[in-house]
C-alpha cells in the first residue's frame, strides 16, 4: 500500500508534504509508514517504506535526503546525493538543486518548510523546543540569504504538524529558557493549573515574521500530533513516551525539475523507442 501524504500548495514547481501513519510496511508502534532510521524500526521496513515513497515521487532513493537530527542548529546546504555521515548532527537542510527531496523527521517537534520561488531554493527545518529556543528558523532564513541570495520577502513558509499549546506541558526550566532567550512570553505560553504550556507553532511563526517573511506567506497546519492519532504518527501518552521506540512523521520539500524542450524530446523518444534523429 502506498503511503498517504498531506500535500501543501506552497508554490508552483515545488512539491511539499508531510507523511501520515497510513500506508507502508512498518508494524506495531512504528506502523504503518515510517522512514526514520534512528527510532528502532527494522531496517527492512524502513527500506521498503523509502522505496514506496520514492516510487510515488518518481525519484531514486539517493535523491531522498534526511539528516540525523540532534536538536541543535546545524544547517547544511546539499547539492547532490549525500552519504549518511555528511548529515550527522544536522537539524536543517537546504538546496537549490531540482530533483533532490530534502526532509526532516518529527514526532512532537515542528517541521518548517521554506521555499524561495524567485531563486529556486528550499529548506526543511526540524524545530523542537531546544532548536526553537536557539532560533533555528531565523538562522535558516539567514543562511538561505547568505548562500542563495534569498530575500525574506520572497520566501513562502509552511509550518507542518506538531504538538500544539494545549498539549505541550513543560517544566519551569523550559519556560525560563524561552524567557531568557528573549521571547515575548505572553503570546507563546499559557498556564494550565500548576503547569506552563508553550505554543511551539506560534514561536516559530514569530521567528519567520521577525526574519522578514510576510505574514500572508506563512501557513500553519492546524493539526496537533498529540490530538490526531488516526492521521498522524502520534506517540502514546507522554508518561509512556520513549521517542526512540515509535515511528516518526516526515516533512519534505522538493524542487521539481523543469522540463526543457530537449529533455521532453529525449523522454518522448525513449518512451516510444525511437531516437531524436528519426523524428
Structure summarized in a few sentences:
About 25% of the residues lie in helices and about 25% in strands. It has about 280 residues and is an alpha+beta fold.
Topology order in helix (H) and strand (E) letters? EEHEEEEEEHHEEHEEHEEH
The number of E-state strands comes to 14
Strand order of the largest sheet: 4-5-8-7-9-13
| Largest pleated sheet | 6 strands, mixed
The dominant shape is globular
C-alpha Rg, in Å?
A: 19 Å
Please tell me the overall pLDDT: 84
Strand content: 15-25%
Contiguous uncertain segments of 5+ residues = 232-247, 260-279
| Total of helices | 6
Overview of the molecule:
- The protein is an alpha+beta fold.
- The protein has helices at 43-57, 129-133, 136-148, 172-180, 200-210, 261-271, and strands spanning 5-8, 14-19, 64-65, 75-77, 92-95, 101-106, 110-116, 121-127, 155-159, 169-170, 189-192, 195-198, 218-220, 249-255.
- Strand 11 (189-192) and strand 12 form a beta hairpin.
- The model is unreliable at 232-247 and 260-279 (pLDDT under 50).
Amino acid at each position: 500500500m502506498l503511503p498517504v501524504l498531506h500535500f501543501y500548495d506552497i508554490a508552483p514547481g515545488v512539491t511539499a508534504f508531510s507523511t501520515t501513519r497510513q500506508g507502508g510496511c512498518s508494524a506495531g508502534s512504528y506502523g504503518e509508514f515510517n522512514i526514520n532510521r534512528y527510532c528502532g524500526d527494522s531496517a527492512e521496513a524502513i527500506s521498503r517504506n523509502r522505496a514506496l515513497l520514492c516510487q510515488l515521487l518518481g525519484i531514486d532513493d539517493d535523491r531522498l535526503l534526511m539528516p540525523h537530527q540532534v536538536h541543535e542548529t546545524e544547517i547544511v546546504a546539499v547539492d547532490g546525493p549525500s552519504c549518511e555521515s555528511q548529515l550527522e548532527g544536522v537539524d536543517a537542510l537546504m538546496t537549490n538543486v531540482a530533483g533532490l527531496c530534502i526532509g526532516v523527521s518529527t514526532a512532537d517537534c515542528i517541521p518548517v518548510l521554506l521555499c524561495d520561488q524567485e531563486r529556486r531554493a528550499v529548506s526543511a527545518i526540524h524545530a523542537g523546543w531546544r532548536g526553537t529556543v536557539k532560533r533555528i528558523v531565523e538562522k535558516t532564513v539567514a543562511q538561505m540569504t547568505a548562500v542563495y541570495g534569498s530575500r525574506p520577502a520572497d520566501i513562502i513558509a509552511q509550518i507542518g504538524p506538531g504538538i500544539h499549546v494545549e498539549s505541550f506541558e513543560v517544566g519551569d526550566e523550559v519556560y525560563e529558557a524561552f524567557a531568557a532567550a528573549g521571547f515575548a512570553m505572553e503570546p507563546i505560553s499559557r498556564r494550565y493549573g500548576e503547569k506552563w504550556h508553550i505554543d511551539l507553532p506560534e514561536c516559530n511563526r514569530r521567528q519567520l515574521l521577525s526574519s522578514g517573511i510576510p505574514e500572508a506567506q506563512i501557513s500553519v497546519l492546524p493539526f496537533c500530533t498529540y490530538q490526531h492519532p488516526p492521521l498522524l504518527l502520534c506517540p502514546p501518552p507522554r508518561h509512556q513516551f520513549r521517542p526512540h521506540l515509535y515511528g516518526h512523521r516526515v516533512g519534505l520539500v522538493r524542487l521539481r525539475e523543469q522540463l526543457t524542450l530537449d529533455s521532453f524530446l529525449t523522454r518522448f523518444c525513449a518512451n516510444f523507442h525511437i531516437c531524436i534523429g528519426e523524428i
